[in-house]
Design a protein that fits this description.
The protein has 16 helices and 13 strands. It is α/β, with parallel strands linked by helices. Keywords: Signal.
């Protein structure tokens, strides 16, 4: 019943969307669909003949494997048990040597969720220790982080609603096939910033760096000029400030990491998501643009903050120049520039935006009551919400709805209006994470 209502609201929202005049240069879910259909096709790429392979499109994340003298060195293990079993079969198609070493590029679950499949050969599992300590008692927030992660990644959405997870197909645990994650803890945890190891005839340079996580490894094969980047590069705007929350991701350090990646003069870059970069000139061009775009947003944000602008003002004025925004590998299909700006602001300045009005604001309910009275009461605001939805002014509609819901949180009609507005916004969203959050929250409103 609730799903049928959501579908009805989606149809209504689509009708409103289609009935309005077309807007030039509008980007919406169609661009996300196009990106999702081309950015990570199912393929195994032989990077170095009979030696280095990149596996993409078989899971939300990528994996790579290197054939050593007597064994296989595996870089990440895909996101779930059944998908790792497919990876195991792929490896067997290229060699009968056993997997004796696994290296995690970082600790995100989608990169190590299939590790248990490879335990029959008792591999050494190598990972990096975090370069920054985790905030104390972070586990006390597990429930809210889990909830927000479910929304961000669209775990409870249908395939049609979710489309993808932005930088890869949906995780195996969302496919309703009983898939599961089989994590295995590392047996070797590197605490040095740089370690050079010979593993079964292959020289590895392992460097601990900061980026999307605080426990990332850059994995460099100097003999073959192959760099495994983990999630420090993938082919769209990165998730620099995830909407699910979490510790501040040090963007200045991430920029430093991209500079380090450029310093290798790699011929191949194999990312943890999306397509590999092939060719030294292409690698240099892409990584340079990626670095420069992020550095521009970072510097412009700091400059705007220093001018005394509020967080909303900074988010409004800092935009990615067209020369970078038009590049296919900097599209906002996962993270967004606006969320990056907001993350930088709060990371450096905290919650206070310099406006003394915000030092002791009215309680939300009291503020809503006073606002509602000035606007002519509940009926007038509901009419305004309905009018905003007809005009496809969905952001205004949900902001008006929030005024009523701050006073009357279970107002059924207003919750449905807000859900309809969220669906309209989802249809206009290029970020998979943003799309998922809109749809997931709409479902929650209708389920209450």
């Amino acid at each position: 019943m609730k799903y049928a209502l959501l579908c009805t609201l989606a149809i209504m929202a689509s009708s409103l969307f289609a009935a309005s005049e077309p807007i030039k240069n509008t980007v919406d879910e169609q661009s996300l669909k196009a990106f999702s259909s081309t950015a990570y096709p199912k393929q195994v790429t032989e990077i170095i003949p009979n030696k280095v392979y990149h596996v993409m499109g078989y899971a939300h994340s990528n994996a790579s494997f290197i054939i050593g003298d007597t064994s296989v060195i595996l870089i990440d293990t895909l996101d779930s048990e059944s998908r790792a079993m497919t990876l195991k079969k792929i490896i067997a198609e290229h060699t009968n040597k056993p997997v004796k070493t696994i290296i995690y590029t970082h600790g995100h679950p989608d990169h190590r969720g299939g590790a248990g499949v490879f335990m029959d050969t008792a591999p050494e599992i190598i990972a990096a220790a975090p370069l920054k300590p985790v905030l104390g008692k972070m586990n006390a927030l597990k429930e809210v982080f889990d909830l927000r992660s479910i929304r961000q990644h669209g775990y409870q959405l249908s395939d049609e609603e979710a489309l993808s997870q932005g930088i890869g197909i949906r995780e195996g645990i969302t496919t309703k096939q009983g898939d599961k994650q089989v994590f295995v803890a590392p047996t070797t945890v590197l605490t040095e910033r740089k370690v050079v190891r010979e593993i079964d005839g292959v020289t590895f340079e392992l460097s601990g760096v900061l980026g999307e996580t605080d426990d990332h490894l850059l994995i460099w094969l100097p003999t073959y000029k192959v760099l495994f980047s983990g999630d420090n590069y993938y082919g769209c705007w990165p998730n620099i400030s995830p909407i699910r929350g979490g510790q501040y991701r040090d963007i200045s350090a991430w920029i430093d990491t991209l500079e380090k990646m450029l310093s290798y003069n790699a011929k191949y870059v194999l990312p943890g998501h999306t397509r590999p970069l092939m060719g030294e000139s292409n690698v240099k061009e892409v990584l340079t643009n990626y670095h420069d775009a992020i550095e521009f947003v970072f510097n412009e944000t700091l400059k705007s903050i220093n001018q005394g602008l509020s967080i909303d003002q900074v988010a409004e004025v800092v935009k990615l120049p067209e020369k970078w925004a038009k590049l296919p590998y900097l599209g906002e299909y996962y993270g967004t520039v606006e969320w990056t700006v907001r993350g930088i602001f709060t990371g450096y300045m905290g919650w206070f935006d310099e406006n003394p009005t915000k030092l002791h604001p009215l309680p939300a309910k009291e503020h809503a009551k006073k606002t509602l009275a000035l606007m002519g009461g509940k009926k007038a605001v509901i009419v305004a919400i309905q009018d905003a939805l007809k005009k496809r002014d969905a952001q205004w509609a949900i902001e008006l709805a929030d005024i009523i819901l701050a006073i009357e949180s279970n107002h059924k009609a207003v919750k449905q209006y807000k859900a309809q507005g969220l669906i309209i916004l989802a249809q206009k969203e290029t970020s998979a994470n943003g799309r998922h959050y809109y749809f997931a929250y709409a479902k929650e409103l209708l389920a209450d």
